[in-house]
Specification:
The complex is a heterodimer of chains A (443) and B (569).
Chain A lengths: L46 H24 L5 H37 L6 H12 L1 H7 L1 H5 L1 H4 L8 H6 L5 H32 L3 H28 L12 H26 L9 H32 L2 H10 L4 H20 L2 H5 L1 H23 L21 H22 L12 H5 L6
Chain B lengths: L5 H9 L38 H13 L6 H25 L14 H12 L1 H12 L9 H21 L26 H40 L14 H12 L7 H34 L11 H27 L9 H31 L3 H12 L2 H7 L8 H13 L7 H4 L2 H28 L14 H24 L5 H6 L13 H5 L18 H6 L2 H4 L10
The chains are: A mainly alpha (443), B mainly alpha (569).
Chain lengths: 443, 569
């Protein structure tokens, strides 16, 4: 594969104007969609971007680590600054983890429903799922400093004692290790099957993937739900919500679908996947984004609404903190920014069929997902100092909120860009490849 | 994938050159009836037995025109008699009062609301299959959507009855509606019970419209077939006393119902657009109805009811129970209507079995989350509502030395075994492929879903915060017979449906048959079959939009004689 020289790319491709061409017909007559050049990125593609992102991520991580020193202060102040830096970093880690997990879920769902339309796009989402090791490694600071991040590690009140059989440090680390092993195993298995199929083109491997996904999706549902309890809900161990796992899943799905749209947009902008990923695929991906935007709104509204309506103090505590000290603005903004605006925009057919416009919406949704996680995690600093009760406080925004979030996210993004440039862009041995190439919407 | 063109096939058959259509393809150990092909390089056929478009029309219309068989009348009479129990019991309730039910001060909702939630849940599968699976382009849905939609309407009718009568004074039911102040009483807009009225009535209206609109082309086919027979002076039976011939009656009734449908491409175009829009509107409705039903419980502060996972959990449960009911209707249908086995293949049943397994896990996930969070919350009322109202059987309590046990443990464990354990059978391919096993699991799931609502409602209510408020609920014969009557009502309506209305969306089935594909040309098909990887052409109908294909070859159109008056309203 490496022996084929780089082909100069000839100007903007018709793919850039897909709305004018209903089927995104970007291939010339007689041109083979599976030509080597069409299913590989140009050699060296993204090297600069990847390096740049890694640099930004690294610098951000270092700055975040130094925040307690740079922000000055001593004693209690320094402790607070450390917690602030850690909470912001935790948001970034959860964001990267959610992207990998959502992508893993997407791969399994596509196998389970025997999706044909998305085969030419599946490799990109497999790649992101395959970066789970990176996402998990980024979580090390959160785990190492769990004592600072998670109040329950030091709490002694009766509730903490009641929850001790679950929320104790050995079991907590053991659980995290089990989740990590399960996810790594699943992503390695599914990614491995798909890449092996590139080489040996054995349709039987598709059936293995379906079987692994059937078991995998169960493991995935339970582990993701409990991971959301451990990594987010337990930040305030007083609070509980049976919906929380589904809420975490819904947010991750939006972010992963959006990342998928962005990656495909980048690949198509580089003139690759002509005739393989067209406006038809973009259209259906946009529909999924629309669907999950509504699903997220449904889940988050239901969770909020039921707690607000019943108005029981112990379940209100989460929202009391997140609806005061300025956080209420974030909360209200998400109703429009995370739901209403993308919902209305994604209703339009032309939006979904243009990889450029869809990419814009995807970038916005990814930003909104970051805001959602930030709103969930960050109020544990300043706003919620005393156990269980919201205290008058402040949002306490500082530059570390940007670097903390940007650090892990930029590192993960660097890995994604690096991954796109390596290997085939499609699962070239998949038996349903022809179906995906012929995919049409007819509406 | 290389089936001959339907016109060619029909011509050959009429000339006696081709064999008549094969009903129910011979059983093959590997592929079952031919649809259970697991090869990822192929998509299994959705219609078996080398059917032409004409065969589909003949199969679907034939059961209406020639009658479903000798079994129908006894079945109808029996179920209608059972259905009669419902108005009888409601009458007794209305003239006597809710004391005829087993309610008491503590348990003031029991079988009435259990039955309501049970039936409204069943009413979800139809719209799910029609709307959500339509948006997901699941082509296999075309064989089952019509029957499922009909079932939805009938289930919603049964469901709607219970809240209407559950306070006894049924003449006050009009107060459910936001009628401007007549008696200084305004409905409480802050109550989820009122939102329920809106949600359920909206759902019923849209589901009815969706069902009826989808049926119009098929009703027009029935009209045209009757009109053609009249034109050819073919003899049909006559109505007793009036002497009106059945075909004249059919032409009249189906003619009025088909509102002037003429199979023109303009009609199809509008139909397609309307269908898509109704699918878009119905999809949020499927979720909203049962979410709002769940709000009836979850907005309260009652332990066991107030939990945030209720909305999606109820929706998943509704789909679960709805699919079980669809299976319970379609599996016997395949026996009493043998021609349908080519349309509802073993693959259709297997797909539905997989949905049962998946949604069974979703409700199992919700049960698990509720139970875990009940403990995790540290709220002793919440823990007690689970442990000592629902879960702990007396013999286990004795064994572990607990002084308290859950009196309704049998209801809880019935729910768990039916809803979580029984679908596990579907991990086995042989179970997913055996109609008998699927029927059994569907039956268990239906029982389990009824018990789920009973567990949620009665076990949470019967022991609230103070021991002085603790009362058991025992159903009376009126409770039981009202529910039995509602089952009879449901079945009666379904039997009427299979007798007089098309059970399949003919145009939609035709659109997913291989002949509908623009790539389908008998001689040219093989050229398409091999792509560069040697993978076979995915086959099936990747082609024309549903409806358009049906229009092009629809039997209704060419049959119309130029002199014949238009049969529409």
């Amino acid at each position: 594969m490496t022996s084929i020289p780089a082909q100069p790319h000839d100007g903007p491709h018709p793919t850039h104007r897909p709305t004018l061409r209903p089927h995104g017909g970007a291939l010339g007559p007689g041109e083979d969609p599976l030509a080597h050049d069409n299913i590989h990125m140009p050699p060296g593609w993204g090297r600069v971007a990847s390096g740049l992102l890694l640099g930004i991520g690294g610098v951000s991580c270092v700055l975040t680590a130094l925040y307690p020193v740079l922000a000055g202060g001593s004693g209690d102040e320094a402790g607070k600054a450390a917690k602030h830096a850690l909470a912001s970093y935790h948001v970034g880690f959860l964001y990267a983890l959610g992207l990998a997990l959502g992508s893993l879920g997407l791969v399994m769902i596509m196998h389970l429903v025997k999706a044909g339309w998305s085969v030419t796009m599946r490799r990109q989402v497999e790649n992101v799922a395959g970066l789970l090791p990176v996402a998990l490694a980024l979580g090390l600071p959160s785990v190492i400093f769990a004592g600072t991040l998670f109040k329950w590690t030091k709490a002694t009140d009766s509730l903490a004692q009641h929850k001790a059989p679950f929320l104790n440090e050995p079991f907590f680390y053991a659980r995290l290790a089990v989740y990590a092993l399960l996810w790594l195993g699943l992503s390695a298995r599914l990614g491995g099957l798909s890449r092996r199929q590139d080489l040996i083109r054995d349709p039987e491997l598709t059936r293995h993937a379906v079987a692994s996904s059937a078991v995998g999706i169960l493991v995935f549902a339970l582990s993701v739900a409990f991971a959301s309890f451990d990594l987010i809900m337990a930040l305030d161990y007083h609070w509980y919500s049976t919906m929380f796992g589904v809420y975490f899943f819904a947010g991750n799905m939006i972010a992963s679908l959006s990342l998928w749209a962005l990656v495909l947009g980048a690949v198509r902008a580089a003139g690759r996947l002509r005739g393989l990923v067209t406006a038809e695929h973009s259209h259906d991906l946009g529909k999924l984004m629309l669907g999950f935007t509504v699903f997220w709104a449904y889940i988050s509204f239901s969770q909020y609404f039921l707690i607000w309506y019943a108005n029981i103090p112990e379940s209100q505590v989460w929202f009391m903190v997140r609806k005061s000290n300025g956080w209420e603005n974030v909360f209200l903004f998400m109703a429009f920014g995370h739901f209403l605006a993308p919902f209305l925009v994604l209703l339009f057919r032309d939006v979904k069929r243009s990889s450029v416009v869809l990419g814009g919406v995807a970038a916005w949704l990814m930003l909104m997902h970051a805001l959602d996680l930030f709103w969930q995690v960050r109020p544990i600093v300043y706003a919620l100092e005393n156990t269980g009760t919201p205290t008058p406080g402040k949002m306490g925004l500082a530059w570390v909120d940007v670097t903390g979030l940007l650090g892990p996210v930029a590192v993960f993004a660097a890995a994604v860009v690096w991954r796109i440039g390596r290997g085939v862009l499609i699962p070239s041995g998949d038996p349903r490849l022809a179906e995906a190439i012929e995919h049409k919407n007819y509406v | 994938m290389s089936a001959p063109h339907p016109d060619e096939l029909t011509t050959k058959r009429l000339a006696g050159l081709a064999p008549p259509p094969i009903s129910a393809a011979p059983y093959d150990p590997r592929t079952g009836d031919g649809s259970l092909n697991d090869d990822p390089t192929q998509r299994p056929p959705l219609v078996l037995g080398q059917r032409s478009f004409h065969d589909v029309t003949e199969t679907v219309c034939g059961y209406i025109e020639k009658g479903p068989g000798k079994w129908w009348l006894p079945a109808f009479v029996t179920s209608a008699q059972v259905a009669g129990l419902m108005p009888l019991m409601i009458l007794y309730l209305a003239v006597t009062g809710v004391g005829v039910w087993g309610l008491n001060n503590q348990v003031d909702w029991a079988w009435d609301i259990t039955n309501f939630v049970f039936w409204i849940g069943i009413g979800h599968a139809g719209t799910l299959i029609s709307a959500i699976l339509c948006l997901f382009k699941q082509k296999w849905r075309t064989s089952i959507n019509r029957a499922a939609e009909a079932m939805t309407i009938f289930a919603v009718i049964c469901a709607g009855t219970f809240p209407g009568v559950h306070v006894g004074r049924i003449w006050m039911a009009w107060m459910l509606f936001p009628i401007p102040n007549a008696n200084a009483i305004w409905p409480n807009f802050r109550s989820p019970l009122l939102w329920d009225v809106f949600a359920v009535s909206t759902y019923a209206t849209v589901s009815l419209l969706f069902w009826y609109m989808g049926m119009i082309p098929d009703l027009a086919t029935l009209r045209d077939r009757a009109a053609l027979r009249l034109l050819r002076k073919e003899r049909s039976g006559r109505l007793p006393l009036i002497g009106l011939s059945y075909d004249r009656l059919r032409a009249l009734v189906y003619g009025v119902l088909s509102v002037g449908w003429r199979f023109s491409s303009r009609h199809w175009l509008n139909y397609e657009k309307a269908y898509l829009m109704l699918a878009g509107v119905s999809t949020p409705l499927v979720l909203s109805v049962h979410s709002i039903v769940s709000f009836d419980f979850a907005t309260s502060q009652l332990p066991g009811w107030h939990t945030t996972i209720f909305p999606p959990y109820f929706v998943a449960g509704a789909i679960f129970g709805g699919f079980a009911m669809v299976l319970m209707l379609l599996i016997p249908s395949r026996i009493v209507f043998p021609g349908m086995r080519d349309l509802i293949t073993a693959r259709h049943l297997e797909n539905m079995a997989k949905i049962i397994l998946a949604t069974g896990f979703m409700v199992g996930f919700a049960y698990g989350m509720e139970f875990f969070i009940a403990w995790y919350s540290g709220n002793s009322y919440e823990t007690d509502a689970f442990l000592y109202n629902r879960v702990l059987p007396p013999f286990v309590a004795e064994w572990i030395g607990s002084e308290r046990s859950a009196p309704y443990w049998w209801a809880y464990w019935t729910m768990i075994s039916c809803n979580v354990l029984s679908p596990q059978l579907f991990w086995f391919k042989s179970a997913r492929r055996s109609p008998a096993a699927i029927f059994l699991v569907a039956l268990l799931v239906t029982i389990g879903m009824w018990f789920e609502r009973f567990v949620i409602i009665v076990t949470s209510l019967h022991r609230a915060f103070i021991p002085g408020e603790w009362h058991m609920f025992y159903p009376t014969y009126v409770d039981i017979l009202t529910f039995v009557g509602s089952c009879g009502t449901f079945l009666t309506l379904y039997l009427l449906f299979v007798r007089f209305l098309p059970q399949f969306a003919m145009s939609e089935i035709k659109a997913v048959m291989p002949q509908a594909s623009p790539h389908h040309h008998p001689g040219h098909a093989t050229a398409h079959a091999a792509d560069r990887h040697g993978a076979a052409h995915p086959g099936g109908a990747t082609g024309m939009p549903p409806g358009l294909a049906g229009a092009a070859h629809h039997p209704g159109e060419p049959l119309r004689h130029p002199d014949q008056p238009k049969g529409g309203a």
